[in-house]
Specification:
By secondary structure, the protein is α+β, with helices and mostly antiparallel strands. The chain has helices at about 85-95, 145-155, 160-170, 170-175; strands at about 5-10, 10-15, 20-25, 35-40, 45-50, 55-60, 65-70, 75, 95-100, 105-110, 120-125, 125-130, 140-145. The mean pLDDT is about 95.
Length: about 180
């Protein structure tokens, strides 16, 4: 049985600066008509960056959760920008790093039930330090933690941002020599 859903009609509800919201009419495998609310997004990037045996994070207030979260440096991809260009820009802007050994680790789907966003994951284990260049509407603190402390915080649910959790887990053996 073919389990794909066929789009009958796309309906743009909202177009914003970083996302668009659609309510699509679809034909499901049974032949019935249903609706899918989809957040369309250009995609994002995230990097686990290390300097002097410390992992660099940003701590910023996240309005949706009404609290500050500790996250690995990340951001949205701009149009006509490659994933490598995006993460290099984000590392420079958020933590003032220029990567000397950027490696692509893979990608993740942060919430496939309602968004088409893809976040590309990188490691940057050898970095030069320069000045940060925060976006005008970004207010964050740079936090650097010894590698072992960062993993203790991960294991104690003190780091809960999904992209950060996944990337930390993917690089656990490399960084902790387990």
């Amino acid at each position: 049985m073919d389990k794909t859903e066929k789009c009958i009609k796309e309906n743009l509800i909202y177009k914003g600066k970083i996302l668009s919201l659609f309510r699509d009419e679809v034909k499901v495998p049974s032949g019935n008509i249903s609706y899918r609310e989809i957040v369309r997004h250009n995609g994002g990037v995230c990097a686990l960056a290390v300097h002097n045996n410390e992992i660099y994070f940003v701590k910023q207030y996240r309005y949706a959760y009404k609290m500050e979260l500790l996250e690995l440096p990340a951001g949205k991809m701009e149009e006509n920008e490659t994933k490598e260009e995006s993460i290099r820009r984000e590392l420079r802007e958020e933590i003032g790093f220029i990567s000397k050994d950027l490696k692509y680790i893979g990608y993740m789907y942060p919430s496939p039930g309602y968004t088409d966003e893809v976040i590309h994951l990188f490691s940057s284990l050898d970095n030069d330090i320069t000045d940060t260049d925060f976006d005008p509407d970004e207010f964050l603190d740079i936090i650097h933690l010894p590698i072992k402390k960062a993993y203790e915080m991960l294991d104690n649910n003190e780091i809960v941002d999904a992209k950060s959790v996944i990337l930390l887990q993917k690089l656990r053996k490399v960084l902790l020599d387990d």
